[in-house]
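[Automated response] Your request has been received and processed.

Submitted sequence:
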Amino acid sequence: MKRTVLLFFALVFLGANLGKAQGITDQLYATYEKYKEPTLQKRRIKYADLQPLIAQVKSNPKFEVQKVGTSIEGRDLTLISLGEGTTDIFLWSQMHGDEPTATQAIFDILNFFTAPDFQEEKKAILSQLKLHFLPMLNPDGAEVYQRRNALGIDINRDALRLQSPEGQTLKRIRDSLEADFGFNLHDQSRYYNAERTPKPATISYLATAYNYEKDVNEVRENAMKVIVFMNDIIQKYAPGQVGRYSDDFEPRAFGDNIAKWGTSLILIESGGFVNDREKQGIRKLNYVSMLSALYTIAQGSYKSISIEEYEKIPRNDRKLFDLKITNMTYELLGKKYILDLGIQQQEIDLKDHSDFYFKSIIVDQGDLSTYYGYETFDATGYTIVPPSSTERNTGSLSSSAAMALLKKGIAYRVGLLPKRGFFTTEPVHRVTKAPNTSDFRLAVGQNPTFFLKKDGKITHAVINGFLIDVAQELSGQRFGNALIIR
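Generated structure:
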C-alpha cells in the first residue's frame, strides 16, 4: 500500500512538472526575437561567421570553451559547455555542411543563457544538466555549402572506420562525456511531407535504432519520450507538420552507434515551411523545442510520457513539389491530354557559396493526385501555350513592359548578354539566339517555361518554374528569377 501511495505521488509530481515544462514554451516563443543572434540571418553561414560569436561566449565565465579538434582544411572544432548538473547533454550540428538551421539555433540558445531573463528556468536547467554544444562539425563543407567534408565523405557514415578528423572528434567527445542524451541536429529536404498529408515535414524526429531488429531498450525509450514531448510543442506552432524519420538501422551512422553506445539519441531534421526558404521560422521552432526539451529532462517530467504516442507521429514521406499544376490540357501531335505537372525550384549556388539563384526543373508529370505542392494551381480548362521570343533587345525592362511581353506569350529576349551572371530578376529569359519552340514538348528534367490560356486568352505564365498571373502586378507575386542562357 505504501509503495502504491509513493508511486501515485511520484506520478502527480512528474505530471505537474510536465505541465510546467510545456508552459515555458509559450514564453520562449513569444520572446524569441530578444535572443535571436542577429548576425546569422541566412542559411549559407561560414566558419568565419561563428568565430566572433564563439569569442564572445569565451569571454563569459559561465561557459567553458575549448578547441577539441581540427577539420581537414585546418578549421577549429569547438566545444562550448555550461551547467553544473550531473546529467550530460551533448548537442552537435552541421555534420553535413549544407544543413545549418540548428547551428543558428544553438547560438540563439547560447544568447538565452547569457541574458538576464528566465532566471528560475535557467537555474532549473543548469543545476541539473551539463550542456555541451559542438556547432558546425563540418566547417569545410559549410564553406562550399555541400553535404560532404573536404575528404569527400559523409561524416555520418564514418562512425566505424573513423577516417575523418571530424568523425574522430565526435567519437572522442561522445566517449569522454558518456552523455545521457545526445541531440543530432540536421536539415532534410523541403520536399518531405508528413505522410498522406499536404503539409511539409517542417520538423522530423527520430529515436535512432541501435540494431537491425529496432529493439527498444530504456536508452531508446527515453529518447522516444522526449520526442513525444517536443512533438506536442511543435504542434502548437506548426500543426500537422511533424514527421517521423525512418528508423532503419544504419551500422555506419553516428546516430545509430551513439544510441548503441548508451546515449539516448534524438535526431532532429529541419525540413520545409511555407514562405520560409531561409528556414528562419524553422530555426525558431528548433530554439523553442530544444530549450523546452532541456527543461523537461532537467525536471525529469518526460519520464511519465507514454512511448505509444511516438508511433502515432506520421512517417516522413517525400511527395511535395514547390509548384504543382493540375488538370491542364496539353496538346501533342494533334491530340489533347490532361496532365499534372510537378516542379522543383532548385537552388544553384553562386561562386562564393553565400547566395543562390533558382534553376527549376520538371520532376514529374502525369497523374500526380497522390502528391502535393507548396503552391498548387488547378488548371482545369486551361491549355498549355508554347513560349515565343522577342526581336533583339538588350535594354532593361520595366515591370510593366515585362508583363506586356508575358501577355503576348513571350518568354525569351534575344540579344547581347551581360558579361557576368546566370540569372535576371526580370520575368523573361535572356538568350543570344531564339530557341526553337515549334516542337515544344514537356519533359521531366526540362526547365518549365510556358504559358496557360483559357477561353483563347493567355492568363498565366510559368517562367523558370514560377507561376505568374499576367493580370496582376509582378511585385505582389512570388517570383524568383528568370535565366540568362549562354
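Summary generated for your ticket: The longest strand covers residues 320-332. The radius of gyration is 26 Å.
If you did not submit this request, please reply to this message.
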